[in-house]
């Protein structure tokens, strides 16, 4: 079983739409959770951390459900520039160094 | 502010050749890691280090060696390149705020 699982998509949405991604993780001892964005042929970049209480950064909202071991990312008012692959990231065994990455969910925002 | 610097950006090797991918960070992070990314797959951890002089294996360590003589540098060595090692390699340094990546090395083994 993979440490982190995501729906690969693609999610094809029109500009202005709201879109949500989920991912599940297997290690109940994980302590840190993140969403990363990866553009084609580029390095992953940190989008936002995910906190137990949920957190928002502009049009982006992240939620964590520890009981069900899933993380979500909500993007409101999608822009063309949001087109990318979104990676769910979880650390393992309480260590910063062992990050487990989902395979990513591809988002295409269409005009 | 350079962050994480990887070199080279592109490399073509012949089967059996060896080479070293360089990685340096200027954020004074203790933790550094190497990942490979193949099409349709997520990032897979090759090796990681929790500080100078300490390294450990990740998910896919075979065929790779690492060392960590300083906090700043974490080179990855391919001992005898194989076509299966054709991939994009990312170095990252991390703290509690997440992992920060270099720009990647695209390696092709022919």
How would you describe this structure to a colleague?
The complex is a heterodimer of chains A (about 110) and B (about 110). Chain A starts with a strand and ends with a strand. Chain A has strands spanning about 5, 10-15, 20-25, 35-40, 45-50, 55, 60-65, 70-75, 85-90, 100, 105-110. In chain A, the strands form 2 sheets. In chain A, strands 2, 4, 5, 9, 10 and 11 form a 6-stranded mixed sheet that branches. Chain A has a 5-stranded antiparallel sheet with strand order 1-3-8-7-6, with no helix packed on it. Chain A has no helices and 11 strands. With about 110 residues, chain A is an all-beta fold. The model of chain A has no long low-confidence stretch (mean pLDDT about 90). In chain A, strand 6 and strand 7 (about 60-65) form a beta hairpin. The radius of gyration of chain B is 13 Å and the shape is globular. The model of chain B has no long low-confidence stretch (mean pLDDT about 95). In chain B, strands 2, 4, 5, 6, 9, 10 and 11 form a 7-stranded mixed sheet that branches. Chain B has a 4-stranded antiparallel sheet with strand order 1-3-8-7, with no helix packed on it. Chain B is about 0% helix and about 55% strand. By secondary structure, chain B is mostly beta strands. In chain B, strand 4 (about 30-35) and strand 5 form a beta hairpin. Classes of the chains: A mainly beta (about 110), B mainly beta (about 110). The interface of A and B includes residues 4, 8, 34, 100 and 101 of A.
């Amino acid at each position: 079983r993979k440490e982190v699982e995501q729906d690969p998509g693609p999610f094809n949405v029109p500009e202005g739409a709201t879109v949500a991604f989920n991912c599940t993780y297997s290690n109940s001892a994980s302590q840190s959770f993140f969403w990363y964005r990866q553009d084609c042929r580029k390095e992953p970049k940190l989008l936002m951390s995910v906190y137990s209480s949920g957190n928002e950064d502009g049009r982006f909202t992240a939620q964590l459900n520890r009981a069900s071991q899933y993380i979500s990312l909500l993007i409101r008012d999608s822009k063309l520039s949001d087109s990318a692959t979104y990676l769910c990231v979880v650390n393992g065994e309480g260590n910063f160094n062992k990050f487990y990455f989902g395979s990513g969910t591809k988002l295409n925002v269409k005009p | 502010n350079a962050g994480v610097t990887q070199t080279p950006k592109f490399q073509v090797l012949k089967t059996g050749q060896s080479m070293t991918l360089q990685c340096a960070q200027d954020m004074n992070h203790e933790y550094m890691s190497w990942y490979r990314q193949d099409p349709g797959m997520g990032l897979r951890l090759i090796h990681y280090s929790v500080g100078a002089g300490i390294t450990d294996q990740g998910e896919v360590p075979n065929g790779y060696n690492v060392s960590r003589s300083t906090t700043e540098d974490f080179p990855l060595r391919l001992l005898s390149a194989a076509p299966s090692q054709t991939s994009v390699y990312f170095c990252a340094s991390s703290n509690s705020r997440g992992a920060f990546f270099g720009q990647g090395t695209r390696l092709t083994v022919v």
